[in-house]
Amino acid sequence: MCGIIGYVGGGPVAERLVEGLEVLEYRGYDSAGVAFDLDGSLEVRRVVGPVAQLSEVAGGSRGASGGLGHTRWATHGAVTTENAHPLTSCAGELAVVLNGIVENFSSLRAELEADGHRFASETDAEVVAHLAEDAYAGDLVAAVAAIVPRLRGHFAFAVYHRDEPGRLVATRRACPLVLGRGEEGSYLASMSAAFSSRVEELIYVEDNEIADLRGGEVRLHGLGGEPIDRPGEEPGADLVSDRGAHPSFMAKEIAEQPAAIRGTLSGMLDSHGGPIDCGLPSALFDAEQIVIAACGTAYHAALYGAYLLEEWAQLPCRVEIASEWRYRTKRLAPGTLAIFVSQSGETADTLQAQAHAAALGARTLAISNVGESQLVRQSDAALLTKAGFEIGVAATKTFTAQVVALAALALHFASRRGALSEEQASAYGQELRRLPMLFEKFLEADHPVFEIADRISEQQFFLYLGRGYGLPIALEGALKLKEISYIPTDAYAAGEMKHGPIALLSEDTPVVCVATASPTYEKLVSNILEVRARGASVIAVASDGDEEMQHHADEVIFVPKASCELGPLLCVPALQLLALRVAERRGLNVDRPRNLAKTVTVE
Predict the structure, then answer these.
(1) Which residues form the catalytic set?
(2) pLDDT per residue over 158-172, tens digit each?
């Protein structure tokens, strides 16, 4: 979750660190801090709150030759200045920033305290500072190499010592770490966007490697000291974004969904209606069955994709929660393709599930919005969503792009397997091409979403319902409302409502139904009538021209009409805007919902 940044070189150190933290802040925003050498001492500046507050106290680094910074999402210990990083050793000569979790910190802390070390925080990360203090004998690389084998968990950390100014040492295990080399010096960070505009070369650190940065020099070593020669890569486009005229990043990113769909489909569809081509290795299409693992919003996208893979490609496909699947799956049938969906490509549970599937012998495919991510780099192949940098913590455009990528994959499978006729495949391909225009049509039109949200924003419980392809969309709509408005919200397959959830309904309960055209439309209408018979109000999201729904629901939000398979996807912006407006009416920060972080790098 947290973000780390380090810099050594001739530029203004504090400014470079804060600049990087401003980009990384969406990864963690409980507290922030920097440390840098100054006149033979180690200066540490920390604040509780946003990076903007840190920038007010982080100045005065003139003459510094390097340092490190951190923006925190709390795991161990409350949100306090004492628990903010950088964390220091007893004598204050060494500072550490860490992303991830040290699982055996309790036993290590007890051992260190018995040896006389004094701890100033409640964090798991502070043990690294004290272990490094014990191991340090004039060489920071040797000290880090000595302590890594003692740590259990997944982490990336960087260390700076006052006696070696202008030198940064870092390592990682299952958490991202990237290095950058530029004219002004060298950088390290959780992601390259923190410094990509200032470097000419990127180097990705692998597990249990040690990075040694001195000015413009970047070296990699193994734990045994052996040098590692890895060629650098050119940085991609600068990912930093601003809100423009939008009141929030979330609002901006909802509006960017047409572009996200176009970008994701670019190169897969030709302008003449030819077959889908995802540009993947042919061997992947020999799969006899598919398992998709993901977490959170990506899990909902995976559910939608699985429905399409089964219907269009006629392939057995199941969807798993990544954090659960890897602990209970002991074998995979031959011919299994394992697909892993993650916006960041750094989701800890999804990464572990991917490694587990690879160990079981499955071919693996990553679907991610970050081409440089660990998930992409460790999978056999990747299908990239091209949604652009997403800063709002609640995923919007990346969810839509994930569904579209999975739809393209399903159609490619169907064409390769002959599961659809040429006419059918062409029709669905044309519909995929039309999706950006249909999203724009809704986003640019007048609709009652905001008026409805204003009327229901004070309600204390919501229920979302859907059937078939509408179920994953209902689940995602409910998650958006929970994430940013903090209102208890449930989502169910509409047919399951009477098996328990109907007991929750009262006259004050808004029930949101994904009600586009489908083979189960009449059954959904029956479910709506069951809801209204209990006094609850129904907000239906239905296809343009569906006059019948106006007789069944209390409120109807109309979206552009599409096929049964893709119609529910057109409901996504309506549900996102509904959640956005409700949260705004409650005076909440929709870009930074409490207790959440954009990239979940802890298990």
Answers:
(1) 2, 598
(2) 999 999 999 999 999
pLDDT: which is higher, 447 or 25: 447
∠ CA 272-273-277, nearest 5°, is: 110
- Residue 382: both structure tokens together: 């990747």
List the domain range (segments joined by +) for residue 387: 243-443
The distance from CA 290 to its chain's CA centroid, rounded to whole angstroms, is: 23
- What are the b/e assignments for 531-551, b being 16+ CB within 10 Å? beeeebbbbbbbbeebeebee
Q: Is the preceding peptide bond at 50 cis, omega within 30 degrees of 0?
A: no
Question: Is the per-residue pLDDT at 495 higher than 80?
Answer: yes
Interatomic CA distance for residues 342 and 549, integer angstroms:
36
Same domain (yes/no): 94, 174: yes
In angstroms, rounded to a whole number, what is the distance separating the alpha carbons of residues 257 and 440?
8
Higher pLDDT: 237 or 110? It is 110
User: What's residue 240's pLDDT?
Assistant: 54
Q: What is the C-alpha separation between 273 and 322, in angstroms, rounded?
A: 36
Residue 183, number of CB atoms within 10 A of its CB: 11
Tens digit of pLDDT for each residue in 462-480?
999 999 999 999 999 999 9
Strand order in the sheet with 462-466: 489-493, 462-466, 510-514, 537-543, 555-559
- Read off φ and ψ for residue 211, nearest 5 degrees: -100, 135
3-state secondary structure of 374: helix
* Residue 87 falls inside a structural domain: yes
353 and 475: one domain? Answer: no
Distance between first and last Cα of the chain: 10
**Is beta strand 201-204 parallel, antiparallel or unpaired with respect to 178-182?**
antiparallel
Which tokens in the block code for residue 197? Answer: 């505009």
Within 256-343, residue ranges assigned H as helices are 257-265, 296-312, 322-328
Which backbone phi and psi does 14 adopt, to 5 degrees?
-60, -40
- How far apart are the C-alpha atoms of 32 and 44, rounded to whole Å? 11
Sheet strand arrangement including 178-182 = 41-48, 31-38, 66-72, 3-9, 185-189, 178-182, 201-204
Residues 430 and 565 in one domain: no
Report strand pairing: 167-173 vs 94-102: unpaired
How many whole angstroms separate alpha carbon 410 and alpha carbon 396? 22
For residue 43, report the phi and psi dihedrals to the nearest 5 degrees. -90, 130
Helices (runs of H) and strands (runs of E) counted in the chain: 18, 24
Average pLDDT over residues 542-567: 95
pLDDT at residue 338, as a whole number: 97
CB contact at 8 A, 160 and 42: yes
- CB contact burial 284-293 (16+ within 10 A = b; e otherwise): bbebebbbbb
Whether 24 contacts 190, CB under 8 Å? yes
Backbone angles phi and psi of 567, in degrees to 5: -55, -45
Do 455 and 439 belong together in one domain?
Answer: no
Residues 370 and 390 in one domain: yes
- Contact, 34 vs 69, CB < 8 A? yes
| Size (the chain), residues | 603
- Residue 248 CA from chain centroid, whole number: 18
411 and 492 housed in the same domain: no
Same domain, 590 and 450: yes
- DSSP, collapsed to helix, strand or coil, labels residue 562 as coil
The burial of 558, by beta-carbon neighbours within 10 Å (0-12 exposed, 13-18 middle, 19 or more buried), is given as buried
